[in-house]
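Re-run requested by the PI after the first attempt was lost when the workstation crashed. Everything re-entered from the original request form. Ligand of interest: S-adenosylmethionine.
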Amino acid sequence: MPSAVSTKTGTLYIVPTPIGNLEDITLRCLRTLKEVDLIAAEDTRHTKRLLNHFNIETPLISYYREKEVERSEEILQRLQEGLNIALVSDAGTPGISDPGAVVVQLLQENCVTVVPLPGPSALTTALSASGMTSSGFLFLGFLPSKKGQRRKQLTSLAASEYPIVIYESPHRIDALLADALAIFGERQCFWARELTKNFEDLQHGTISSLLAKSQEGRNRGEFVVIIWPGVQEEVQGQTVEELLLWYRDNSELSLKDVSRRLADDLGLSRSQIYQQALGLWQEKD
Ligand code: SAM
């Protein structure tokens, strides 16, 4: 009897690419891009320019946000046929505010090997120059583009004890900083713009000083914005009512956020606390 032909399943390599300066690609990433059978790229024309620069002739297939599910199935099939594939996005690390997670999940479910390569990301590059001393941070990627949703998300973060890190485009930086100022009040802030490029710009200041800079209107390039936590005052009060009054008069949290926080902290029902808070908030108005 002829022996069955066994095909070894291939590997998906996650390959970070430069966020501006083409020298920021590792030797391992270049070798991987040369050696794999296929490169799955967010934008094949964009990646082709990178490959041309490094004389890499590996064929490309497209893998982009709107077709992630469909393209993930195709990638799985090719890997099961024994091909090795590299996944790249337009810039930085795939899967970090970029397509990638869907195919990785599918491969995990199908026991296919995924090998992540370290490399550039705007997130880590900005953090390294921010002077942030806290051991943790909250990375949010892009906030919603609709004002109402963006404000809602910022409000829910007002009490975060960690610096928050946000990706932002040049045409929304003003709106982001204006909303942050309205919701958080004045805080320490940092932006990293055009990282690794000719006009790299790192600015520390308050939210309002950076808002004034962005309103000067020369905001070419993409931003990473870091906003530090507000000064934490010690909450004072013994009873639920005293605590609610303290939050009402000393914090920028909304009635809903205060109720949620107290209910969670004290193990009480949210709706009960909300009702009590409503009365106290109405008294003030
Ligand atoms: N996957 C990428 C990474 O690892 O950084 C992020 C891709 S996301 C679609 C693009 C956003 O990343 C930009 O809007 C900007 O906020 C940030 N970004 C990318 N390149 C940047 C750069 N050179 N300087 C500052 N921010 C950058």
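Saved to the shared folder this time. The mean pLDDT is 92.
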